[in-house]
Amino acid sequence: DMRKANGSGLKGRHILITAGPTHEPIDPVRYIANRSSGKQGFAIAAAAARAGARVTLVAGPVHLPTPPGVDRVDVETARQMMTAVEAALPADAAIMVAAVADWRTDAAAGQKLKKDGSGKPAPLTLVENPDILATLGRHAQRPALLVGFAAETEKLAEHAQAKLARKGADWIVANDVSGDVMGGDDNSVHIITAQGVESWDHLPKDAVAARLIEKVAHALASRSD
Ligand code: CTP
Ligand code: CA
């Protein structure tokens, strides 16, 4: 419609987005991380800003420029991301694209871990990080539309369906990462909602972003005012 054509489909809305990996320190020089580049989340933030939204982008450590018109909050760890996300509420929609590290070490060492000469590796005790999406799913200020991403290498729809329910999200964008998606420029996604599964063609990440933001604008418009 004309509102979308004019790039104002999200005017007056606040959209909260997470992107990138998190880094969980082991000691001052080492960390646990993953291969997320942040490209898909940054493309979604850019598309939301182009659609006229106020956009808060909570970004893990990535090498990407801030899209025009986006408020960016840089964080390093999952716990910092959780704090920044809660501080940014309320939001009309939250799109959790970050590849949050599932585990961190129970306590990061204050000094660089050293080999002790025994040939045995230093023991690392891992503990689970907070689940940011699930926390928003049961939050007093839950966004009206809550969208998660799920990177899967197998049983894509099945795993994504389970996540939708477990996390209290409205949609899960399931991402087939069995190929070279992480760090690449294209994405192959399936949108899982209570209504079923919608599969999109293999598309550039910018096109996935534009299409997802159009769907978000449409959903928010039909839910209120
Ligand atoms: N997520 C999150 N906080 C976490 C882990 C995941 O907010 N600590 C969000 C991601 O940003 C994504 C969704 O949850 O939107 C699904 O992430 P995923 O890693 O696929 O799900 P997990 O519950 O961590 O399950 P898995 O064991 O498959 O990694
Ligand atoms: Ca995970």
From TrEMBL:
Its EC number is 4.1.1.36, 6.3.2.5. GO terms for molecular function: FMN binding; metal ion binding; phosphopantothenate--cysteine ligase activity; phosphopantothenoylcysteine decarboxylase activity. Its cofactor is Mg(2+); FMN. Residues 10-218 form the DNA/pantothenate metabolism flavoprotein C-terminal domain. Residues 15-225 are annotated as: Phosphopantothenate--cysteine ligase. CTP binds at D102, K112, P130, D131, I132, L133, F149, K163, K167. It comes from the Bacteria. GO terms for cellular component: phosphopantothenoylcysteine decarboxylase complex. Binds 1 FMN per subunit. GO terms for biological process: coenzyme A biosynthetic process; pantothenate catabolic process. Keywords: Decarboxylase, Flavoprotein, FMN, Ligase, Lyase, Magnesium, Metal-binding, Multifunctional enzyme. It catalyses: (R)-4'-phosphopantothenate + L-cysteine + CTP = N-[(R)-4-phosphopantothenoyl]-L-cysteine + CMP + diphosphate + H(+); N-[(R)-4-phosphopantothenoyl]-L-cysteine + H(+) = (R)-4'-phosphopantetheine + CO2. The keyword Transport does not apply. Pathway: Cofactor biosynthesis; coenzyme A biosynthesis; CoA from (R)-pantothenate: step 2/5; Cofactor biosynthesis; coenzyme A biosynthesis; CoA from (R)-pantothenate: step 3/5. In the N-terminal section; belongs to the HFCD (homo-oligomeric flavin containing Cys decarboxylase) superfamily. Catalyzes two sequential steps in the biosynthesis of coenzyme A. In the first step cysteine is conjugated to 4'-phosphopantothenate to form 4-phosphopantothenoylcysteine. In the second step the latter compound is decarboxylated to form 4'-phosphopantotheine. This is Coenzyme A biosynthesis bifunctional protein CoaBC. It comes from Sphingobium quisquiliarum P25.
